[in-house]
Amino acid sequence: MQPPTDPAARLRLLEVWLPFVQAESERYGWQLAGPELEQLILLAAPRLYTAANPLTARAIIWHYRQQLHHN
């Protein structure tokens, strides 16, 4: 599954995941700003759709954050 291209669906995706990803950024000192948080969510979206629990979502976010950090 790919990130939504429909603007309303994309906005909903960001609204759902932004609090979680922002909290992770603060918890681990990543200091990601709004655009970086959005980029991380959109990059991780295909896998986040499969996250069954917060621990899985956290692992997915960590994985994609590492990808962004190394690029």
Written description of the protein model:
With 71 residues, this protein is mostly helical. The chain is built from three helices and no strands. Helix 2 packs across helix 3. The longest helix is centred in the first third of the chain and has 22 residues. The chain is globular, with a radius of gyration of 11 Å. The chain starts with 6 loop residues before the first helix and ends with a helix. 13% of the residues are buried. The mean pLDDT is 92.
Briefly characterize the structure.
The protein is an all-alpha fold and 71 residues long. It has one domain (7-70). It has helices at 7-28, 34-48, 54-70.
User: In terms of structural class, how would the helical and strand content be classed?
Assistant: mainly alpha
The geometry reads as: globular
**Low-pLDDT runs:** none
What is the straight-line distance between the termini? Answer: 23 Å
- What proportion of the residues is helical, as a percent range? over 70%
Rg, Cα atoms, Å: 11 Å
Largest sheet: none
Query: Mean of residue pLDDT?
Result: 92
How would you summarize the topology of this molecule?
Layout: H1 7-28, H2 34-48, H3 54-70
Q: What would the keywords be for this entry?
A:
71 residues
